[in-house]
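Fig. S4 source data, part A: sequence.
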Amino acid sequence: MNTDRRDFIKKGTMILAGGSILELLQSCSKDGVSPFKHYEICQNTCVGCGDCFDVCMYDAVTLPARSFYQINEDECISCGKCVSKCEYGAIKIAYKRYILDSESCIGCGKCIEVCENEGKAISWERDYYQVRGKCKPNSCGTPCITACQENAITIVGNKASIDTTECIRCGQCIPVCPQEAINPAHVLMNESLCNHCGKCYEVCELDNVITLDEPEDYFEPYIDSNVCQLCGSCRNSCEDYDAIYWELYKAKINGDNCTGCGDCVDVCQFDAILGIVNT
């Protein structure tokens, strides 16, 4: 609310308290004061921040509890989008770090698929399997062909060959090759793009390919209600996961106790307090 409007409402109440209704009405103009007898809180715009409750010396304001935003820990992936949107620094997140060992990766691509809808932090280094020159199918008995469920491996000349159109990058051929002649597909992670969602960690079926590095001082994400201004920016930024919710309470003013001092009008940043005309 701007200063002029606050002054307008307060002057109306003060004149009403110190003079007659007639004098007040005679002094009114388009840009003058208004004959308010007390204040009322608009329930459509009140967010239950409690500022008016704190400032009222006459116990005219009632509030069942202060409204607050809270993070649902089960839904939050600690992506940090809400942190960047909160201009008050009210959201606290201790980020988990996911580390990808690309040398141990068999290149199944599942992590890329789930990361496509997240930070797009994982990409292909090589998206196909290939056989190196040390392959010796005449002496090994071609266990790779037996292991391949997709019939993607054949012998061409004196070397195994992988049909990349048939290969599903399952990795079954890798451990059975005695010459270690099969190069799997590989993925890379750009940690600067990672949003810490952990979905790659969940879908990776191999041990120690993607590991979780959790800080020693890790804590669950939370919103500091002492700092939060209930602006709603964090909630709007969390549409994909709906991890932020709020408990909304509304304040009310008891007109019998209200003296029309106007202090509550000054502190309300949501323009939720209205003047009531004396009739």
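Fig. S4 source data, part B ends here. Residues 8-34 have pLDDT under 50 and may be disordered.
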